[in-house]
Design goal:
The protein has 2 helices and 9 strands, in the order ααβββββββββ. It has helices spanning 11-26, 34-45; strands at 50-52, 55-59, 62-65, 69-75, 85-92, 99-104, 113-118, 124-132, 137-148.
Length: 154
């Protein structure tokens, strides 16, 4: 019989494996912060002011399970060539990434409305911002209470 010997684990290999296993147990899930969300919003708006209004943000205020949270954003706009929504961004405070989604629209959309689902890591503020064709930004914010968080793996 032609048996292939099984390589033995060297001291260096054992130390590397132990260090790798230890680093896996010490890693915590990444988490955005309110400051990071503000920075991402500032990048989205180019530092321009954001005014509350014109945006209707529809999301459940009390979520039992954060794994799949439905939301929709509706912006008051005629969606004409001269006056329309160009982008809608959805941002959160505590998920691993603060920018949930950015939707690009044109006047051909006919209606400035988007809908999706998102995962929520914890109770947090969610903000929807609409960029208009004239360069102004409008927003709505909602606090969502999450009883069973998503995005956390232990």
């Amino acid at each position: 019989m032609n048996e292939t010997p099984i390589p033995s684990l060297t001291r260096r290999g054992a130390l590397a494996a132990a260090a790798g296993a230890l680093s896996l147990t010490l890693v915590r899930p990444a988490r955005a912060t309110p400051e990071k969300m503000k920075a991402v919003i500032a990048a989205f708006t180019g530092g321009k002011p954001v005014t509350e209004g014109r945006v209707k943000f529809d999301i459940t205020l009390l979520v039992e399970n954060g794994n799949s949270v439905p939301m929709s954003v509706l912006v008051e706009s005629p969606m004409s060539a001269q006056d329309h929504v160009t982008r809608i961004g959805v941002f959160n405070e505590k998920n691993p990434l603060p920018d949930v989604a950015i939707f690009h629209l044109t006047p051909r959309c006919g209606r400035a409305q988007v809908a999706s689902r998102m995962r929520l890591n914890d109770t947090q503020m969610i903000t929807a911002i609409a960029e208009m064709s004239d360069g102004t930004f409008w927003s709505a914010t909602s606090e969502v209470i999450v009883t069973l968080p998503a995005c956390v793996e232990e």
